[in-house]
Specification:
mainly alpha, two-stranded antiparallel sheet
Length: about 80
């Protein structure tokens, strides 16, 4: 799956994300990192932590990452209904 990364602005209490036409998923996980308008208002430690987190998220959702969805299931739970 290809991850989407973009900067968005809020409108009141809502955030609108424009998705590419080829993005077909109906549900997805969204992680918001605040970006301050004035440089230097975020502590250097928080800034480094956010960069580290974004790099690891990009690696996690990279096209080269193995899909573990069905590989790690040793014995399916027949009672589980998604």
């Amino acid at each position: 799956m290809k991850a989407i990364r973009q900067k968005v602005k809020r409108t009141g209490d809502k955030v609108i994300v424009e998705l590419p036409k080829d993005f077909k998923s109906e549900t997805f996980e969204l992680i918001l990192f605040p970006i301050e308008d004035s440089p230097g208002t975020i502590s250097e430690g928080l800034n480094e932590w956010m960069k580290f987190s974004v790099r690891n998220l990009e690696r996690l959702y990279d096209n080269e990452e193995i899909d573990y969805a069905n590989v790690t299931v040793k014995e399916p739970n027949v009672k589980y209904k998604p």
